[in-house]
Amino acid sequence: MAITVMDTYSAMRRVLRASAEDRAGLLKSMLEPISGMYRYAPGKVDLAEMHRVASGFPIDRDEERCLDALETLAEAGAWERMQDAFNAGLAVQLAATPGLQAPDITVLLVLGDPGDDLFMGPSLGVAGSGGFSGYILITLWPFPENLARLEATAVHELNHNLRFSPGGVVWDPATVTVGEHVVSEGLADAFARQLYGDEFGYARIGVPHLHDDAVFAKVTTGLDVTGMQNFTAWVHGDTHAERYGATPVGLPTGAGYAAGNRLVDAYLATTGQTAAEALHADSAKIIATALQAD
Question: Are the C-beta atoms of 205 and 153 separated by less than 8 Å?
């Protein structure tokens, strides 16, 4: 099992410095290594459009701002640091689960869109997609807080990828619950904290409501909800739900992350397991154990 962080630094420089008519083609070429993420999507996927929807850097404006941000990432050693973090995270996971089998993983680190108010504001300049086995996409703006958490961000997404790889937990769109999503975020944060501590290991989006009992109670009322169109509201909160055309449920940004951490921490404290050892723990069992202990 190998993890490869692709050289998107060079690829993004080419895109941003190219003539306007060449940029879309170069962007698609850069994204091609993770096209398998969309293998279950109906019809042919336009990679450039998926990039735009996912708050990826624009190709029709803000070139200099993005080029400056790209250099900031390079000066911070982002690609090298993430590669080291993925390797370290995989070693810790394999030590905890020696029989673990998963495919090789391709990773793309991509600049976000500085003109996207949701991404730069409520999302705090970070978006990760690690739940598709074999592929990880991290979209990021180099705010200082995000640069400090590069390693933790990497292993958070690694945890998702390994949890939902073949032989692990099955994410069935027809039956998967909000509870599974909430628990997966808590487990991924717990794994990041196992490696990098509480200062850096919590996903920033969930930190404001970690100890909010009212938010936790509200999230627990939705854990049995199915239908992936509903998940954004319960996990990311109303602001994100409104952006993507989902129905708000009365939750602040990052509510599901905060609740997921509380559920997983209660489960780990009760069982004595580490986050790595709990990689494939059943979400229903985690929830039941945590709520009983609460």
Answer: no
* Residue carrying structure tokens 């999503």: 181
61-101, pLDDT tens digit by residue? 999 999 999 999 999 999 999 999 999 999 999 999 998 98
**Amino acid residing at 102:** A
* pLDDT surpassing 80 at residue 276: yes
Span between the terminal Cα atoms of the chain, in Å: 38
The answer on 260 and 203 residing in a single domain is yes
Domain with 143, as residue range(s), is: 1-168
Same domain for 150 and 279: no
pTM of the shown model: 0.96
Total of domains in the chain: 2
* Buried b / exposed e along 143-181 (16+ C-beta atoms within 10 A): beebbebbbbbbbbbbbbbbbbbeebbebeeeebbbbbb
- Angle between the 63-75 and 78-96 helix axes, to the nearest 10 degrees? 50
The amino acid that residue 49 corresponds to is: E
- Cross-sheet strand order for the sheet of 126-129: 3-5, 105-111, 135-140, 126-129
Is the distance from CB of 186 to CB of 205 less than 8 angstroms?
A: no
Domain closes at, from 133, 168, 203: 168
Do 39 and 69 reside in the same domain of the chain?
yes
> Are 159 and 188 part of one and the same domain?
no
Residues 271 and 143 in one domain: no
Last residue of a domain, one of 138, 168, 198: 168
Closest CA to 235 of 189, 270, 199: 189
244 or 81, which is more confident? Answer: 81
Q: Are 286 and 175 in the same domain? A: yes
